[in-house]
Amino acid sequence: MSGVHTHSGSDRAEGDRRRVRRFENRITVSAGGGEVCDGWVLGVVGAAMPLARDDLALTPAWTGLIGSASLIGLFFGGLLFGRLTDRIGRQRMYLIDLMVFLVGSLAQLVVQDAVQLLAVRLVMGAAVGADYAIAGALVAEFAPPHRRGRLLASLIVFWYVGYTLATAFGIVAAQLTDAPSLWRWILASSAIPSLVVLLARLGTPESPSWLASKGRRAEAEAISRRWLGRDLDPPDVDREPVRTGHRALFSPGYVRRTLFTSLFWLCQVTPFFAISTFAPQVLGLLGAPSDGTGELLLNGFLLVGCLSGMAVINRIGRRTLLIWPFAVTAAALLALGLWPHAPHAVIALCFGVFALFHAASSVLQAVYPSEVFPTEIRATGIGFAAAASRIGAAVGTFLVPLGLAAWGVGPVMLLGCALSLVGVLVSVAWAPETRGLELERVSRPDAPERRGRAT
């Protein structure tokens, strides 16, 4: 009989593990669905704006402003709504931002002029910035240490899936019809994933870590036992409570982490815009047509790079995945800067190496900011780092074309190389190895800066 009881207990324990694992996957997919919406909202602009130009009589200035409105909104959304997520909770903001996606998507069907479209795109961009902070914080706080890296990294994969699907939808729609209002339906198509993800998020619980940080420990304990099958970790009485707000990001315990997450993200984003100058040339060399299919192929290639990063993050660790890709991308940009008129095969090789290593390392944009800040300022820190990265996006979008006109390709590539080298230095100096560590330990202000192999 004892053997029967032991076997039954083992089966029950295995069943509990599978149930918890399914819940962790549900949280990640629900959070990742928001990233699909983020990528979709940003991805449909490329196909829609050329079609909207005539219908709304847009000048080049208005076209550029509306095209970049989501990035502008993301900057302010990351700053404002990351902090709000730390104040009012992950689950509430988790639903609100999807409602904004849904309403904003549908509002694009009825806008009457450029000003209205700009306003809608700014609001949707702010929701994108909010979702960056919400998704990372929620997944980090529910994921166990041994799965946290891959689950967080998958958020960037979801983003590329959304961006690629949006690009494909725009290409197909443009080939099927030339209706004057097509651009409205392309922009409004983000309502479909928004509704699906909103429904998927209904019923998900609040983060027990956040509840505990607000003194609601009984609620936190109940959620942890029901959904995670374990008791909540005892409170860390030695750690001073952190006051929610941007000021805490620049307190002595966290200022280096704030600078690290913001700088490495910015140093990843900005050179990408510089090398994307070569995209039409390289894609043409590879025989891609000029109807947008080449961009779709590039997005697919970047998606493969992200999947590669997610696959190796637990094997090689965060620190290695950040430092070496920075070094490799710097080398690719250096070659292009010193030899801007190289044979097409060399340019294609440099472009491919850069894109693959950049994409693999970009998964850390969802990992590091979600890990190194404590619960009270986790979403605030993620939102701040995301906003800082948009400075790099703005530099790439607006200043790279001016630099190309004034100095030529070589100097611009060398500037991109310099930024990648800054990324190397920042990462070598400040990147901790957080693989396999409990989130509470990683986010302590006095956490040891582990440089070697995690145990």
UniProtKB/TrEMBL annotation:
Domain Major facilitator superfamily (MFS) profile: 27-435
Family that this chain belongs to: Belongs to the major facilitator superfamily. Sugar transporter (TC 2.A.1.1) family.
Major location category of this protein: membrane
Designated name of the protein: MFS transporter
Subcellular compartments: Cell membrane
Regions that span the bilayer: 27-49, 61-81, 93-111, 117-139, 151-176, 182-200, 263-284, 296-314, 321-339, 345-368, 380-400, 412-431
InterPro entries, alphabetized: MFS_dom (IPR020846), MFS_sugar_transport-like (IPR005828), MFS_Sugar_Transporters (IPR050360), MFS_trans_sf (IPR036259), Sugar_transporter_CS (IPR005829)
Highest taxon listed in the record's lineage: Bacteria
Bilayer disposition of the protein: Multi-pass membrane protein
Keywords on record: Membrane, Transmembrane, Transmembrane helix
